[in-house]
Description:
Number of helices: 0
Order of helices and strands: EEEE
Strand content: over 45%
Helix content: under 10%
Oligomer: single chain
Low-confidence stretches: none
Mean pLDDT: 94
Radius of gyration: 14 Å
Amino acid sequence: xxxxxxxxxxxxxxxxxxxxxxxxxxxxxxxxxxxxxxxxxxxxxxxxxxxxxxxxxxxxxxxxxxxxxxx
Length: 71
């Protein structure tokens, strides 16, 4: 995607929760961290961002999913 985001610039972001999940349904086996943020954008004042990270074989974490929904 190129160009301005329809949500506008991020105005603020606060971690609301984070939890470890092992072997979630409908995903490859492994360890994941699911983090949720209370976020405000210029064109959407209240949103929840959910970012899922997957533990890699080398010990690093890689983003595996990203979702936004209005709060």
